[in-house]
Amino acid sequence: MYNSSFICTYNYYDASLALTNPRSKILFEQNPNFHEESEADLLEMADYLYKNELLTAFHMKEIDEKMFNSKVQELYVSLFFFNEDDKSHKSKGKLKNIMKKASEKLLMEDEEFGFIILFSYSYFHLMHLCLCELLEKGEISDELINALNDII
User: How far is CA 112 from CA 25, 29, 31, 66, in A?
Assistant: First the structure.
C-alpha cells in the first residue's frame, strides 16, 4: 500500500524545504556550502525527485491522477478507520489536526482533503517521515509532528 522503505531526498535540493525538515536541516547546518550549483538547476532536480519519490511511495510507475487519488484514499481509510490501538491513537489525532489545518488554508473543512494536501511538494518530505514512523513504530515523534505543523 505505502512504501516506507525509502528516504525522501528532493527536499535536500530546495533550501526552503531543507531548513524546515529536522533531518535535512542538520546537513545544511554542518555544511553551509552544500549548494554550489545554480538555484534553478537545484529546483529542477528537486521537482524531478519529488515526482519520482511520490511515485515510489505509492508503488506507481507513472503519474496517473486517478490511480494516485485511489491509493491516497485507500491509505487514508486504512490509517484512520481501522487498527485503532492506544499507541497510534494519539499520533493519529495530532496528524488529523494538521490535516484539518491544511484543508482550512484552502478554505475547506475536509480532513481527507487535508490528507491529500500533505502529499504536495511543500509538505511531502515531512509527511513521508510521519507516515514511516506511524507505520513502522505505531507513533509519530513530536519533533516531526511539530515540524509538519509549523510549515502549514
Answer: 29, 35, 38, 16
pLDDT tens digits for range 2-29: 999 999 999 988 988 988 999 888 877 7
Closest by CA position to 121, among listed 21, 38, 26: 21
> In whole angstroms, what is the distance from residue 27 CA to residue 54 CA?
22
Whether 105 and 32 have beta carbons less than 8 Å apart is answered as no
pLDDT of residue 48: 96
Residue 97: what residue type?
A: N
CA-CA distance, 101 to 85, in Å (whole number)? 24
Q: Is the per-residue pLDDT at 80 higher than 70?
A: yes
Assess contact for 51 and 38: CB atoms under 8 A.
no
State the Cα–Cα distance between residues 145 and 23, nearest whole angstrom: 13
- Confidence at residue 2, expressed as pLDDT on a 0 to 100 scale: 96
Return the percentage of the chain with pLDDT > 90, whole number. 65
Domain boundaries, the chain: 10-151
Count of all residues that appear for the chain in the document:
152
Q: What is the CA radius of gyration of the chain?
A: 16
